[in-house]
Amino acid sequence: MQMLSLLRRVSGKQMRFAVRDVAMPLMPLRVLMMAVLATSSVIGVASEPNSGESVEADQKLESRRLRIEARLAAEQGNFERAASQLQAAARVAGDLRTAERAQAAMETAGGSNLADFSQLIQLIREQTAPAVWEDEELGTPRFSTFAQGVLIGGPAVMGAVVASLDESQLFLAAELARTGNRNQNVRQQSSLRFVSLNRLEKFLSEQSAAGREISEEAQVLAGINELQYLVRIPETGEVLIGGPAEDWKKDADGRFVGVESGRPVLKLDDLVTLWRTFSRDGAGYFMCSIDPKQGQVKALNDYLKSHRGQLTASNAAQWTQELQSTLGMQNVILQGVPTDSRVASVIVDADYRMKEIGIGRRDGVSGMKSYFDLLSRSERKGSGKAEALRWWMTVAYGAIEVAPDRNTWHFADRSVQCLSENQLVGADGDRKSTGKADRANAEFASLFTKHLPKLAESDAVFADLENVFDLALAAALAHNTGISARSGLNSTSFAVGGEYVAASVEVPQELMTAAESRVYPGGDVVIQVAGGVRGDLRSIVKNADSYVQRPELAAVKTSAHPAGHSENRWWWDARQSSAD
User: Fold this and answer.
1) Other C-beta atoms within 10 Å of 504: how many?
2) For the purposes of burial, counting CB atoms within 10 Å of the CB of 137, is it exposed (0-12), middle (13-18) or buried (19 or more)?
3) Is residue 271 one of the residues assigned to a domain?
4) Whether residue 534 sits in one domain with residue 515
5) Given this model, what pLDDT does residue 425 score?
6) Tally of domains within the chain
């Protein structure tokens, strides 16, 4: 088997790089390209220098290295760095004329959205001729175009290392940089903001290593208040999340909400919690349930039997209080997420409020009705029988829109749904599923689902629940499609047991029963509710019927491209061509 070996003296040391065949483990793109090209001539495969290499030769080598870095920077959209590296390369080589041209190109390439990159591109094309590789078997130089700049091996020739000859990449990067939204103020409102999860994870690792507290803008994920997109950028290997963003503040409950919308912003703690939940090592779902204890249900059942027919308008309040006391504290059951996580707090809070609306203890929004309001006369005649109502919330998506190249996903028609069921209560207090819901029970669930988006506008708890479901979907998609592993995510801060530690939140293990009664002519009704919140997003993303292909989503990936932004920048706004 043929093998191409490159040998170069760098800083007085021998460095050998051998590309063997297509089966060798791939190094990261930038590392591999720099490792290979830094050891080779700009216009061909390097030869072994002699031991008496001069200062002049070292300067030429350094100049080549800087020019290679300039081309890499330009292809990634960082034209400011490209100009700077070209200028440095010219100075090392003593080429003052080129240094002046690089300085002029740098001045025309920066400062506004009217930047002109033509001078810089011309200079890059002159100063950084594409690399070539040599076919050892045929002994002739060959060229190849390859979209991502590095190719290892091939069916016909082993040991091929090439750099892209397709200079359209430079012009694409220039256009992205020229139209890039240059907003530097994270508190400025944006119709579409993106966060790079790769860069964010790196930022968190650096902050942890330095012993610094995580900045507030990172805690609120740059002020994004609703998750709409998951994007993979093949050119950089990054995974992005995106949605509208705004300035934020703390509300009376200490929750971060948008200054203008009042909607809760996404939280870093929730992202990391759910990223771990839907990783290969996670549970793959989350749920909560607030359930009465079996012995207390039996006591309630006995109470109803012994006091049948005794409820009147005059004693209804006292009777309800006694029933609530009989049921007492209910168990809060959590699975899939840490019991002290903010996600746990959100789903428990939303579950309890749903039940309060269901029994008329808390107002919903116009169009919502309590279970009492929906009972017909015939249904009220059955009051007093040992039957429990169960309500719980889950999520559905009308469609997960995906671009043809499967690099962009749009979360369309998200619906938090309330489901219902009647359960039979045995003499010992045990509850058995029926798989059915009576008319009033089913109608309450349907109305709650229909009007929940409006409720989320006025009650931050339910908007928080929507955000939790959307972050869970993004995490489930990233892991199920493999883009998380391919992009190098889930390796440090985000990993299960990773270095990032989410804040501990006090989540109750028990909650007082929310009981209610209402007197009707000729009958009485008392209800107690079991149920909860369940997020089985993995089943959604594994269902092929969940996806609808949308070719127009390709434009979103272009608007999300990080070209032109510093590698240290983990958030940015969408490019003007898409956001306007």
Assistant:
1) 12
2) exposed
3) no
4) yes
5) 56
6) 3
Average model confidence (pLDDT) across the chain: 76
Separation in Å, CA 173 to CA 82, 198, 393, 494, 555:
12, 20, 45, 30, 15
Which residues are paired to 329 by β-bridges? Answer: 512
Round to whole Å and give the CA distance between 132 and 40. 9
Which residue pairs from 122-129 have beta carbons closer than 8 angstroms and sit at least 24 positions apart in sequence?
123/83, 123/86, 123/98, 124/70, 124/71, 124/74, 124/82, 124/86, 124/170, 125/167, 125/170, 127/67, 127/70, 127/86, 127/89, 127/90, 127/98, 128/42, 128/67, 128/68, 128/70, 128/71, 129/42, 129/43
Output b/e per residue, 289-320; b: 16+ Cβ within 10 A: bbbbbeebbbbbbebbeebeeebeeeebeebb
Instruction: Determine the Cα–Cα distance for residues 240 and 513; give it in Å rounded to an integer.
Output: 42
Contact 416, 469 (CB under 8 A): yes
Instruction: Provide the whole-model pTM.
Output: 0.73
Q: Residue 503 — very low, low, confident or very high, per pLDDT cuts 50/70/90?
A: very high
DSSP state of 495: S
- Confidence check: pLDDT of 34 > 70: no
Identify the bridge partners of residue 402 per DSSP, sorted by sequence position.
409, 549
Whether residue 336 is found in the same domain as residue 245: no
| Greatest mean pLDDT range, 20-29, 364-373, 385-394 | 364-373
Boundary-marking domain end, from 175, 206, 223: 175
Give 308's DSSP letter.
T
Which domain range does residue 215 map to?
A: 179-263+551-579
**Are 14 and 163 found together in one domain?**
yes
Nearest-angstrom CA–CA distance, 361 and 353? 9
> Is the predicted pLDDT of residue 129 greater than 90, yes or no?
no
Strand 4-10 with 229-233, pairing: unpaired
* pLDDT tens-digit map of 62-72: 888 788 778 77
Read off the pLDDT of residues 235-244 as tens digits, 9 standing for 90 and up: 788 999 999 9
Residue 385 covered by a domain: yes
